[in-house]
Design a protein that fits this description.
167 residues, mainly alpha, two-stranded antiparallel sheet, 2 strands, 2% strand, flat, transmembrane helix
């Protein structure tokens, strides 16, 4: 390996930077929480836990309903990732499916899936894309990318305000 060839550390650094830029361009955490909220909603009704010789049955009469809700939540989480322009629809649908899962799927996966879904849907609703010219960290990309406050109207510095009197 020569000193000029890119090493594993540089490739990993480049991959991390590209993943970070991808993540900043979409509601990543909203999609992840929504996706993770669907997993306990699917799993718990089909789980068959046992305690020594005692077997518990958590299945409900609407086991297929919890499967459908969980799969839809996973799809909505992926939608937030790969189609960020539809984040409002996905957020509202995730919140509504989380509320429905309380009744259909063992209290929304014993409140774990329900809470993850509500937080993920709310984050999807509130996410706003980064404006052009602004860096995702909150700073400006250059001096001319973000104009300052509006300039004062003409004559304001001399006390001339168009004949109006301030009281």
């Amino acid at each position: 390996m020569s000193a000029e060839s890119p090493g594993a550390r540089e490739r990993i650094s480049r991959w991390r930077q590209s993943f970070r830029m991808w993540r900043w361009q979409r509601p990543f955490w909203a999609g992840l929480l929504t996706l993770l909220g669907g997993i306990p909603i699917i799993y718990i009704p089909y789980a068959d836990p046992s305690l020594d010789q005692l077997s518990f049955r958590l299945a409900t009469t609407t086991g297929s309903g919890s499967l459908i809700i969980g799969v839809l939540l996973i799809v909505l989480g992926l939608t937030m990732w790969f189609q960020p322009h539809s984040r409002v629809f996905a957020g509202v649908a995730a919140i509504l499916l989380g509320l429905v899962s309380l009744v259909v799927s063992n209290l929304g996966g014993f409140f774990v899936g329900f809470l993850l879904t509500l937080v993920g849907g709310a984050m999807g609703l509130s996410w706003v894309p980064v404006k052009e010219g602004r860096s995702p960290a909150g700073g400006t990309a250059g001096p001319d990318t973000y104009p300052g406050p509006d300039p004062a109207p003409a004559g304001a510095e001399n006390g001339q305000n168009g004949g109006h009197r301030d009281t």
